Amino acid sequence: MGPVEDRRVIDADVVIAGAGSVGSAVARMVSRFDLSAVLLERESDVCSGTSKSNNAHIVCGADITPGLIETGIVVRSNGLYDQVTEELGVPYKRIGNCYIALNDAEIKRLEEMRKIAVGNGVTDVKIIGREEILEMEPHLTREAKAALFVPRDGIVSPYTLAIALCENAARNGVKVLPNQKVEEISVEGGKVRKVVATGVVVNTRMVINCAGLFADEVSAMVGWNDFKLHPRRGEFFILDRKYRYLANHIVYPLPGPMGRGSTICPTIDDNILVGPTAVEVTDKFDRGTTAEGLRSVISNVSKYYPEIRPWMAVTQYAGLRPAGAPDFIIGRKPGLAGFINAAGIRSTGISACLGIAERVRELIVEELKPREKANWEPRRARTVRFSEMTPEERDRAVAADRKCGRVVCRCETVTEAEILDAIRRNPAPRDLDAIKRRTRAGMGRCQAGFCRPRVMEILARETGMKMTDITLRGPGSEVLTRPTKRPGGKK
Amino acid sequence: MKEYSCDVAVIGGGAAGLAAAAAAREAGAERVLILERDRLLGGILPQCIHTGFGLVVFQEDLTGPEYIHRWLGKAASLKVESKLNTMVLEVGPDRKILAASADEGMMALKAGAVVLAMGCRERTRGALAIPGTRPAGIFTAGQAQRFVNIEGWMPGERVVILGSGDVGMIMARRLTFEGAKVEAVVEVLPYVGGLMRNKVQCLDDFGIPLLLSHTVTNIRGNQRLTGVTVAKVDADRNPVAGTERNFDCDTLLLSVGLIPENELTERCGIEMDKVTGGAALDEKLETSVPGVFACGNVAHVCDIVDNVTQMGLTAGAEAAKFAAGKGAAERDYVKISAGENVRYIVPQRVSRRSLLERNIPVHLRVARPDQNVRLSIRAGNEQVFKAPKKAVHPGEALIGELSPKSADYFRNTSELVVDVEPLVKRK
Questions:
Q1: Are A413 and B105 a contacting pair at CB < 8 A?
Q2: Residue B128 to chain A, least CA–CA distance (Å)
Q3: Among residues A106, A110, A379, B357, which is most buried (max CB within 10 A)?
Q4: Which of B332, B335, B364, B366 lies closest to B348 in space, CA to CA?
Q5: Residue A312: closest CA among chain B residues belongs to which residue?
Q6: Cβ-nearest to A410 among B87, B147, B223
Q7: Residue to substitute from B3, B44, B106, B120, interface A, most A β-carbons within 10 A
Q8: Three-state SS annotation for chain A
Q9: Contact A407 B142 (CB under 8 A)
Q10: Share of chain B above pLDDT 70, in %
Q11: Backbone angles phi, psi at A378, to 5 degrees
Q12: Could you say which residues of chain A have pLDDT below 50?
């Protein structure tokens, strides 16, 4: 990007740095008030970092260390989940979570875990015996002796939730700007004045730092630098939908010193997630999987689900979750007006995001004393997927618009109408991964083998983009390099 | 919802489906309807602009578009009907088909007989669990072929190809023609995966290195691919530490196998063969569900299109018979089993009546290459048939016939086992 003087200058009462789950939830919360707001995201789409690459398990707070700020916020967040997902049209299911004990020592630990859960306010947990757990999970190892069952734990698609939060925030006036990395925050006279990002300068009264893995760097821009974050890598397999039968609930081993351990977790879209690993790394950009990591996922999980095989996968991925902070860091810095940290958000970020937004709301109200909008719209119109329609609904849809019957992604049965709907929303997806996260086109067993050329063609047609400018996930990830040779050397 | 009925419904309008539809009409089926999810009939052949098609069926060396053009003409002249942009969602065991189409909305189709001809898809990186990042620049070979030959775009400039399947080798040559640099073709097995003629004509003739017993062990680049690591593998296909070398490249093509596309078949409750990935078939290419037939790459991945066509012809003719009520229900089957060094054999069972009456074509794929072998068929401890073979290779299926000359053996056995063994016992 060019010199700062050349960047577009805009004014906003509030700048939210980072459009992961936390930033998206905060953006929607801010949109309730008569505040102008800008949501800045460094990647080419919202929800492109830690928030998209995790196991999508929404914890109700049963297993979190008592006494942490995190614990109270997760519990508070969980109480909001049903209403918010309903308002936003985001599928969410409380399918329940089981911690499996394989031996007598582990059976003893279940009772300690039960007490912690009850202490955290999760009172409906129960210890169940071998027969019951094997009935609930017929493909679980016969070695299972007992389990702690947490019925209120659930699953959501984390990117569907974050995208819905952003769309609803945008509907209520928040400007969502992708490809905008926060580079500098100016403070004058003890007050935040200005944010400089990749392509914009925002004159502002307040910055809310929701920068996830990079929250320590954003915080340090205002001199708040007493914490350091590093990535903890987690590697996952996503299994083909045909293996959905393997598990009915989220299933974990008992937690160890590095966290919850490798799990098997059904997704809201009926895949099975297997993982993650937990390895401390240093590079915040290294999102690659490793041979050792992938091996260890399978060997860990096959202790619990002996039928799991690596070839059942449609893909693998690695996520980097922020580690290094002992607890959530949510609050203001004494002597500095206009800066709120929502930092140190660890593996419970998706679970906690709605509660974090509520806590941030209290801080904003205290400092800016904004008025609530009378016409705030809490609801978001959801796209009905062809794959979820009854035959009669499909008939009506195709009668109204032929594109509703044109299947583009065969594996996930995604129609052209669904892709067009995604492209026309705000924030608008402009790369293939962004369209994939909104529609599932390319998420199936052929991994976009058939539908990629078609999706590119639709995106080019709708936006006027050149085929060679279409990217997988933003600048530098162009899919095609040039036209082939043409007869007579014509272009 | 629109409702239709027809004598024979063919799911998929590629080489298998067109042959089946044509054969069904020729065998007397009145109304034959192809349901095709793409915008055009022809399946994968329009993008296969190289030659090598039709050597068996037409005794001519044709390109893919030329080959399929002939079948499109034949289907049209026989008044085969088709519905394009039509995605079949369900095939019921009662031969009721539910489909969605951009032109007509939902449709229900009652068919006298159904021919499954959905073809196959390419195996992806996910099924192999190749470690590394997930940048732009990774394509399956067939997808790259579509971009280059149909859409007119280059997928990249410096290319490594993993897997020596036919499409991968053909794309190595094609991308070279278009000015890209193919650094290497990397094959995990100690032998080439596709046809020998493709190795010679696509790699050797262009000086493209083929690294056997090697694989890709890492993929680099966060946005666009910047390189891959390639390492030698041991006999168990595990990478050997210390043998890694880096290739700087912006493109990785995967030609690592084809998978019959049988989601509809499985949902219909049809018995599957785990090895072929297709339905278990009898000599009429009928599945375990009466009146539902399968042919071509959806049944097992064929090496050449001519074999696909021949399966289509059989399945179409038999489907027409079934629809006309002439498909005798068989109960007495002889199982055909894969023995020593045989990976699979199609059909998986044959009715005893047919075995005693006529020659039955079989497709057989060996598990590993070998030389100076004997192909033999056993019924219990009795040797029914034997024939020497100079060389066998997993990339080239053996096609032969079971002959009623051996009828004496067929009368009482419940199983025939096929072996491919060395002529001389080795230590």
A1: no
A2: 7
A3: A110
A4: B335
A5: B127
A6: B87
A7: B106
A8: CCCHHHCEEEEEEEEEECCCHHHHHHHHHHCCECCCEEEECCCCCCCCCHHHCCCCEECCCCCCCCCCHHHHHHHHHHHHHHHHHHHHCCCEECCCEEEEECCHHHHHHHHHHHHHHHHCCCCCCEEEEHHHHHHHCCCCCCCCCEEEEECCCEEECHHHHHHHHHHHHHHCCCEEECCCCEEEEEEECCEEEEEEECCEEEEEEEEEECCHHHHHHHHHCCCCCCCCCEEEEEEEEEECHHHHHHCCCEEECCCECCECCCEEEECCCCCEEEECCCEECCCCCCCCECHHHHHHHHHHHHCCCCCCCHHHEEEEEEEEEEECCCCCEEEECCCCECEEEEECCCCCHHHHHHHHHHHHHHHHHHHHCCCECCCCCCCCCCCCCHHHCCHHHHHHHHHHCHHHHCEEECCCCEEHHHHHHHHCCCCCCCCHHHHHHHHCCCCCCCCCCCCHHHHHHHHHHHHCCCHHHCECCCCCCECCCEECCCHHHCC
A9: no
A10: 100
A11: -75, -15
A12: 490-491
> Is B241 at the interface with chain A, CB within 8 A?
no
Read off the pLDDT band of B189 (50, 70, 90).
Answer: very high
B399 shares contact with chain A (CB less than 8 Å): no
* CA A95 to each of CA A248, A272, A308, B34, B316: distance values in angstroms, whole numbers, following the listed order: 8, 13, 21, 42, 47
Closest CA to A367 of A409, A334, A328: A334
CA distance A323 to A345: 8
* pLDDT confidence band for B407 (50 / 70 / 90): confident
Interface with chain A: mutation pick from B134, B266, B272, highest number of A CBs within 10 Å: B134
Measured between alpha carbons, how far is residue A453 from residues A16, A152, A233, A448, B63 in Å? 35, 42, 32, 9, 23
Question: E strand or H helix at B388, and its extent?
Answer: strand B382-392
DSSP labels for B139-161? Answer: EEHHHHHHIIIII-EE--SEEEE
Contact B104 A398 (CB under 8 A): yes
Distance from CA of B29 to the nearest CA of A (A): 29
β-strand pairing of A8-17 with A200-209: parallel
Task: Give the pLDDT confidence of A243-295 residue by residue, as tens digits.
Answer: 999 999 999 999 877 677 788 999 999 999 999 999 999 999 988 999 999 99
Q: Which phi-psi region, left, alpha or beta, contains residue A256 (left: φ > 0; alpha: ψ -120 to 50)?
A: beta
What is the C-alpha to C-alpha distance for residues A303 and B322, in angstroms, rounded to an integer? 49
Q: Which positions in chain A touch B37 (Cβ < 8 Å)?
A: 407, 410
HSE (side-chain half, CA atoms, 13 Å) at B227: 7
Q: Which residues from B are below 8 Å from A398, CB to CB?
A: 100-102, 104-106
Contact A304, A133 (CB under 8 A): no
Q: In which residue are the tokens 């998706």 written?
A: A350
Q: In whole angstroms, what is the distance from residue A453 CA to residue B151 CA?
A: 8
Mean pLDDT of B346-359: 94
Task: Note the pTM of the prediction, 2 decimals.
Answer: 0.95
